[in-house]
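Hey, can you fold this one?
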Amino acid sequence: MTNRQPSWPRVLKVGGVLASLFGLSACDLAPAYHPPHYIVPASWHGQGLFREATPQSVALNADWWTLFADTTLNTLEAQATANNADLQAASERFLQARAMVKEAHSALLPHFGVAFGASDNKSSADRLFRYKGPITATDEFYSGLASWEPDIWSALRNRERVQKFYQQEQENQYAAARLSLQAELATDYFALRGLDAQNAIYQQSITYYQQALRVTQTRLANQDATGIDVARAQTQLYMTQAHQLETQAQREVMEHAIAVLVNEDPTTFQIVPQNLLSDAEPIIPTGIPSDLLERRPDIAVSEREMAQANRGIGIARAAFYPHLFFSADGGFDSNGFNLANLANSMWSYGASVSMPLFQGGLRQAQLQQSWALYRETLDHYRTTVLSAFKDVENGLSMTARLRNENERLKLAVKAALQAQTLTMTLYKGGADSYLDALIAQVNTLTARIDQAQVQTQALQSTISLIRSLGGGWKIPYNPA
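Sure. Predicted structure:
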């Protein structure tokens, strides 16, 4: 394995040590941190539209779902963002991280306290070698306490920075959770609308097949058709009714899933069905800017993890050097209530210095571990970036291909409907067999269902593309 740990001085210059000790200025032992810079590819294979561009020309709005112009979706997204329990839990994790920053910062400041108390004591009169004096005594005291650890090697500051970076990581985790929730809700919503469209297609086909069955039964009564034709018409009708029931069950399940996302009771939550599936094709900016790395919360999370690991190296290094600690205690102590006089005063103050000499390689092992952790986060960051490029590439490819496929299927549906009408007209006039009419019906139903499914997938692929672009989110801080 290649050693990527740079050399660092084990012993500082004497002048620097003296300046740090007497001036109490911090010496940061963490290595200089610069987020990795990756060169953005010149083009994407899926569309060839990947190019350098200004962020304004490709910016998505935070409420990106409004691009679909669906009022029901807009309402559900607002409800989910405000009430989803998982998202609220992510918010609480961010608040916990913010409190941890304050906790870490408190270690940099002097600590003050007060102590007071009283006791009443009695000794045994028969104990051996008892002092011949009072066997009862009282003691009252009050005092002030102070302590401070100068952060000479920036160990405390680096711990505070680690917590700040963790807070920013949780902020990005919240943004990632919110984007995931919004994208999942939109995906489920269009899946539900796709099932609505399929249900409407099945219902229209069932009505058509019922009419065809009546025509066939009438012709059988007039001895113009056979029992096989009636059986075929019945089979087609009953199979279609069965498929409709399956679709309705899938819709109910999807409706329950949406209810959970918006924090509603699935037993009472309902979305009014609509027969037509949206054919909206939002214009998603595909000229991805060179700052894509700052527009995905998962990448920002990975980068903040790397920054934390970098500061952890400084903390591990500081353990090799002396640590200084100041403390003071003063007050009054007496066996009576007359405490506030000079004779009853007491105080103590001092400083202590501690430095590890031999710990069996503990500090060196901890330093090596911190470097290995940093290199791990660096590798994970690189993988996350590559995955981001892959997601955008997949989104561009799938969106374009599915839209083209949908257009072809629309033409197929139009031709199938025409063939169905013509064959039924010929069958009613006795110029064609019912088998030809049945084949036309099957082809028409298959084409219409396929087209509804592909149109649904095209809408969902657009959502996936928006999600891969960060959904309008942008990094809220300077990552350096």
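The beta strands are 111-122, 136-148, 323-334, 345-354. Let me know if you want another pass with a different chain boundary.
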